[in-house]
Amino acid sequence: MRLRPLTFERPKPMIPLLNKPSIVHLVEHLARQGIEEIVVTLGYKGVGIKSTLGDGRAYGVHIEYVHDKKKLGTAGSVKNAEEHFQDKPFLVVGGDHVIDLNLREMYRFHRLGKTPVTIGLIPIEDPREYGIVDIDVNNKIHRFHEKPKRGEIFSNIASTGIYVCDPSILDMIPEDEAYDFAKNLFPRILEENKRINGFLVRGKWTDIGNPTAYREAVRWMLANMKSTTIIGSFNVRGARVIGPFEVQQNVSINENSALVGPTVIGRDTSIGGGVLVGPYTTIGSGCVIEEGSRIFSADIFNNVHIGKNVSVSGAIIDNDTHVGDDCILETDTVIGPRCRIEKGSTICSGARIWPELTIKRGERVRGKCVNDAYETATGGS
Predict the structure, then answer these.
(1) How far is residue 200's CA from residue 161's CA, in Å, rounded to a whole number?
(2) Most CB atoms closer than 10 Å: which of 167, 176, 204, 239?
(3) Which residues contact 142 (CB under 8 A, 6 or more apart)?
(4) Contact of 173 with 67, CB cutoff 8 Å
């Protein structure tokens, strides 16, 4: 819920990341790691995930699906898929994870350690939204604390939510019941004096659980772009372009505009004259950006219309939203789908605008602007 208003119409794994659902990036990474058999557990609005991934052949893997008829928690959801696990260790990865980690190395480490479960660990600058562990030089975890408050942060080594598990742990998870790895299973294993190992992963990881984490994931994925890719026609009419960037079919940039990578632009998007698109920006398909606007490290989804002389800095704008002339969208603003931001409005830093709302001409919006037709809560995961 911390990603609302982006998750009213899609689950977190379906949020666009460089113009394709984040779960597609995850499956592609698993395939590159040589992981060929994948089981996806589906909950909230999971039909979209299944229709996107299909049977996995497009990504060089085989995917099976299990539907959770009610909320089962992280461990309960795995238990619900028990019939698909053979008598060997298996890897658990959150569907909303964005990773660049050597998972095969972690799997081999677990096989040598002979413990019921190995937890992937990573140092975190602010671990208060994660489970932290106390680990010794022999990789043994001595205690685990979920989402610590100030004064409880005995470590900044946080769980990634990536686990390698022996099938024996399935016997410890109740059937058809909400049960969580971090809150329930791991404390029980430690209480029974069984060993849990930790594996310090190397590389990039985030769970895009909030807008800041999402934007960080976009930034490091764009930073990994090494070359320019142009698919189909790309009309540059006296504009200045500096790579790297990825441009899809039928994109046009008019005179006296500048595109500075790393940047990704979807198909059928039109950028007017005198527009500056700065680094670490993603623009979806079917978008229009009119004359004189400035777009800096923003994430613009599909069919978004940006008017003349608009400033968008570090904002996220969902599908089919219209931003009028002379507006300012400050950093860390999130605009839901099908909104209308009228001329001269300012969306202040940290604002959240629910779907299908109209912001009146010249209005300054701070905080949360809700639509009563949708839920209003933003807490939770």
Answers:
(1) 12
(2) 239
(3) 133, 134, 135, 136, 190
(4) no
Please report which confidence band the pLDDT of residue 224 belongs to, taking 50, 70 and 90 as the band edges.
very high
Query: Can you spell out the DSSP letters for 176-204?
Result: TS---IIIIIHHHHHHTT---EEEE--EE
Domains of the chain: 12-223 (3.90.550.10), 229-369 (2.160.10.10)
Distance (Å, rounded) from C-alpha 159 to C-alpha 15? 23
Give the span between the Cα atoms of 201 and 119, in whole angstroms. 10
Count the alpha carbons within 13 Å of 122 in the hemisphere toward its beta carbon: 21
Q: Distance (Å, rounded) from C-alpha 11 to C-alpha 333?
A: 20
Bond from prior residue into 5 cis (ω within 30 degrees of 0): yes
CB 208 within 8 A of CB 96: yes
Partners of 313 in the β-ladder: 296
pLDDT tens per residue, range 293-340: 999 999 999 999 999 999 999 999 999 999 999 999 999 999 999 999
The residue among 115, 118, 124, 116 whose CA lies nearest residue 103 is 118
Burial of 126 (0-12, 13-18, 19+ CB in 10 A): exposed
Q: Are 53 and 40 in contact (CB under 8 A)?
A: yes
For the chain, give the mean pLDDT.
93
Q: DSSP string covering 262-293, please? A: SEEE-TT-EE-TT-EE-SSEEE-TT-EE-TT-
| pTM for the full predicted model | 0.92
Count of positions (residues) in the chain: 381
Choose among 162, 166, 142, 164: nearest CA to 202. Answer: 162
Q: Give me the torsion for CA of 184, 186, 189, 191, rounded to 10°.
A: -70
